[in-house]
Amino acid sequence: METLIQSLVSGVLTGSLYAMIGVGLTVVFGVMRIINMAHGDLVMLGMYGAFWAHVGARVDPFLSIVVWMPLMFLFGMAIHRFLLRKVVLGGELNTLLYTAGLSLFIANLALFVWTGDYRTIKLSYAVMPLRPFDIAVPIPLAISFGLAIVITVALYWLLARTDMGRAIRATSQDAEAAALMGVNVERTATITFGLGTALAGGAGVLLAPSLYLYPTVGEILVAKCFVIVVLGGLGSVPGAIAGGILLGIIESLGAVYVSVAYKDLIGFVIFLLVLLLRPAGLFGVGKS
Amino acid sequence: MTRGLVALAIVALFAVPWLVTNTFFMHLAIMVLMWTALGAAWNLLGGFAGQVSFGHAAFLGVGAYATMIFHLKLGLAPWYGLVLGGVIGALVSLPIGFICFRLRGPYFSLATLAVAEIIRIIAINWETLTDGPVGMLITTLPELRVLGQPVDWESKTPFYVMIATIVVAVIGATWAITRLRFGAYLLAIREDPDSAEAVGIDTVRTNVTALALSAFFTALTGGFYAIYFRYIDPDAVFSIALSVEMVFIAVVGGLATAAGPLIGAVFLVTLAEVFRERFQVWHLIFYGLFMMLTIRYLPEGIWGRIGLLLGRRG
Amino acid sequence: MRLPLALGVLAALAVAAPAIAQDTLKIGAPQPMTGPDAPFGDKFKKAYGLAAEEINAAGGINGRKLEVIIDDHQAKNPLAATVAEKLITQQKVLVLTGGRASGQAVEIASVAQRLKTPYMVDHPSADIITAKGFEWVFRNNPTGSIYPMAFNNFISEVPGAMPKSTAVVYDNTVFGKTIANSAMTFLKSRNVPIVADEAYPVNSLDFKPVMTKVKATNPDYLLLIAVATTDAILLTRHAKEIGVTPRAIVGFGGGFGVEDFAKELSQLADNVYSSAAWSGNPNDAATQAFYNKFHAKYGIYPKEHEVEGYAAIYIIADALKRATLTGKIEEDREAVRQALLKTELTTVFGKLKFGNWAGPLGDQYTNQNIYSPEHSVLAQWRGGKLLNVWPKANAEVAYVFPDPTLKR
Q1: What is C21-143+284-374's CATH superfamily?
Q2: Considering CB atoms only, which of A108, A226, A271 is closest to B288?
Q3: pLDDT range class, residue B13, cuts 50, 70, 90
Q4: B281 to chain C: closest CA residue
Q5: Distance of alpha carbon B124 from its chain centroid, rounded?
Q6: Chain C residue closest to B34 (CA)?
Q7: What are the two backbone dihedrals, phi and then psi, of residue A60, each rounded to the nearest 5 degrees?
Q8: In this predicted model, what pLDDT tens digit does every residue of A191-231 receive, in sequence order?
Q9: Residue B247: what pLDDT?
Q10: Closest among A268, A250, A283, A271 to A7, alpha carbons compared
Q11: Is the pLDDT of residue C314 over 50?
Q12: Around Cβ A60, how many Cβ atoms within 10 Å?
């Protein structure tokens, strides 16, 4: 029983971080139909942001999120404005490969600048986990979980209550109709990409204290992203959140009750089944 | 005229080993041809049928492993294993096709990626068949006589001839498809799957055939990989990076063109080597930048752009 | 069309080949200088650099200078074959070393065997490299299946240390698999029950689930095997977070022996054991002098990798000095191979003589260092330092067992 609860708790906590990574990817896909292969590398940038804030400026890594998310937002807008805008016209495949090139570029530039050394963030208050009811809850993961909820709520408010949010949702549902209704689709796309990048950066900041960081960590993250967003339905924000938590639980239970060797396989098989049987995602809110 | 040129190109292709004496350049030439074969095989499906697979490493790995397993566990000479591996690759592609072709666009791409990862994980864990992560190694290739002469496996020539033959076969198949009704079906499906179905084209069957053909050649090249490098392990032959590279070669050369993959492979293999030599730590940064520049400024590929320019003038 | 122009310039820049000095003796070393393994490539680069510098300052090889050419294989197998081929045929190196990870080393060994060039393996540990009868391949460091030797001796010789049960968690690579097999074969021969046998994919982000499973089996010993430093760090951290409480946590593999391990885990690293290829006998004066010299030059103390890389250059230099070189590259390579076969040497790594013998799992080794079984050491992390504790002759400090920090 203890084992089951511990697995579920670990699964949900890790899953909430997966969800954060997935949300950024899915928002971008919803509006622009871009599968951003460089998403994992944007997460990596966020991780380094938190690291340098901690080591260089002695700022608590979690606190640094208030700096990095806006900066990453601007960075994402710049990427879209100066790099992606023209490429998107060339079609899905070209965009996908372009972002693959971008991924290589960012990761290796980071490798050059920061070297390949593995780094972790050591928090003096987080060496040993909390143990409510004998269930281990690592402190950095618990803080990340809380912040992930805050960010998600903020994102909801943004999408539901602001004009910009309405424009994003409209473009996501039907770009042509949105354009006819007077939405500046181009500008919306730029802002959306900025938003997706900010979310990736935010996810990076939250991940950094629980994981290790090195310049090519993005490759591991990006494959998980795809599984998450498809589970939840490509383009759906609530779907990505549910997908992330679901993947966290699947991996956790799979490792405990089946075998770690096959835990990724279980994830991919479920991913395939969902694609085949419910291409709009488990919750039927994505775009097929 | 065109036929003469093609014949000349083939003669030139097979003359290379007798003109180039430097073994390292021969190695590079073999790499170029290996990537050409992979790019061209991918192009059969991705270029003509417009089904962008991100999991073609699965077929390369299956071909490589089939060749190795037949040789090391059953004692079958690897050149027979290579052909058998191609057939097995095609067979493996059938169920994958029937599953994945129910999906379109990015969903298809993600599904192929998932299938390739599943096969990789199975290859790592099914140790009785694949020896798991330890990998499989051929120490010496068995003796082979061609026209009474023993083949010298220490030289590059036999490998070059082998891969050049595969390249001619796959480019020949590509060329044939562009002339056949089958090719027209594929293009029709790529442009508009619904209309294609409406005029009576069985889209799933056509796509599955294209995939099987593509998988056959990819697996064949995988068999060649096993024979040439003599060592394979699951993470090396089933990697996502390999799949992406195949796509990139086809795109840089020009989608749905017969000669595109050759151009793409020449460009990328030499460029990667040159970058590695010249820029050291910087080379992958430049490689990424180059990928971005090519797609931004030559979205139809190098051969595609040449085709457009010629078309405009003529 | 500015792009084609730019590409043209790039190409032109690249074609002009670099001039290479002709009178040096060249050693080729394929290493990962970019990509995920880049930190390891850098360690070897430093070690080779220091060794070559010293040898050249002392008069070189019979008056000729030694040059180590490092070429990047990005930790990709086919590229390792390409690089080896290039070093042999283009750069005309006399002998190869390096490789770093086993997959790439197998490719290099295969090329070296075919192109008849000696390959002196300094670090890659997969048994297969010296177990396939490659007469051009030599290895100074112990094979993977020898890594657990010191641990095996420890539990056999220390009273009461024999495990009552063991959980084994290892990565799904050649390295992890080989060591796990070797360790489990020994434990089973002593009737120790293996209560968990878990192979995880390398670079896992989360080990809490597997540690949850391990905790439920309440093992007496926890053996962790990781080729990647990151995995080593997270395995240990998550084991302690979840609250696995064996009498000892024993790590196998490079990740458990590097400085980063202690730096990142701080007090969590305390008392964790590392059973590995050793980094030379620290009680030996020559080895200690090397540690200090290395520290003076680079500001870090050498570990396993640096010691192995440094020793490799000395082993090769020794063979080159004894070989009669004619200037004909094929004959010279054969002469170097013959000289390596006759090697009897003590380096900072330890004693060396190449021989053919059978390994602990029954592999028939060719040109494997016959002293390898002595080159496995059990060390323990103490206050940020990794100190040898077993065998006794090489111990720097007394072992702490059972690990008191693991009590609830």
Answers
A1: Response regulator (3.40.50.2300)
A2: A108
A3: confident
A4: C34
A5: 23
A6: C78
A7: -60, 130
A8: 889 999 999 999 999 988 888 888 888 888 887 888 888 88
A9: 87
A10: A250
A11: yes
A12: 15
B-chain CB neighbours of A226 within 8 Å are 110, 113
The verdict on residue B87 lying in a domain is: yes
Q: What are the boundaries of each domain within chain C?
A: 21-143+284-374, 146-281+376-406
Decide if domain C146-281+376-406 falls under CATH 3.40.50.2300: yes
Beta bridge partners of C70: C29
Give the residue from chain B lying closest to A108, CA to CA.
B285
Neighbours of chain A (3+ CB pairs under 8 A): B, C
Which residue in B149, B123, B156, B127 sits closest to B21, CA to CA? B156
pLDDT in the model for residue C17: 42
Asked if C218 is an interface residue toward chain A (Cβ–Cβ < 8 A), one would say no
* C24 SS3 class: coil
Q: Strand C25-31 relative to strand C137-139: parallel, antiparallel, unpaired?
A: unpaired
What's the confidence (pLDDT) of residue A288?
A: 41
DSSP3 helix / strand / coil % (chain B, rounded to 5) = 80, 5, 20
Q: Tell me the ipTM for this assembly.
A: 0.83
What does DSSP assign to residue A208? T
Instruction: Give C261's pLDDT tier (boundaries 50, 70, 90).
Output: confident
Per-residue DSSP letter, C303? -
Would you call C1 exposed, middle or buried from its count of C-beta atoms within 10 A (0-12, 13-18, 19+)?
exposed
pLDDT tens track for C58-75: 998 988 999 999 998 888
- Say how many C-beta atoms besides its own lie within 10 A of residue C195's C-beta: 18
Chain A, chain C: beta-carbon pairs less than 8 Å apart: 106
Predicted local distance difference test score (pLDDT) of residue C257: 80
* Residue range of the domain that includes B246: 2-137+154-313
Beta strands in C238-315 (DSSP E): 248-252, 273-277
- Cβ neighbours, 10 Å, residue C208: 28
- A131, A220, A254: residue with CB nearest C203: A220
Count of residues making up chain C: 408
For chain B, what is the domain count?
Answer: 1
> What gap in Å lies between CA C18 and CA C22, rounded to an integer?
12
- pLDDT for the residue C10: 46
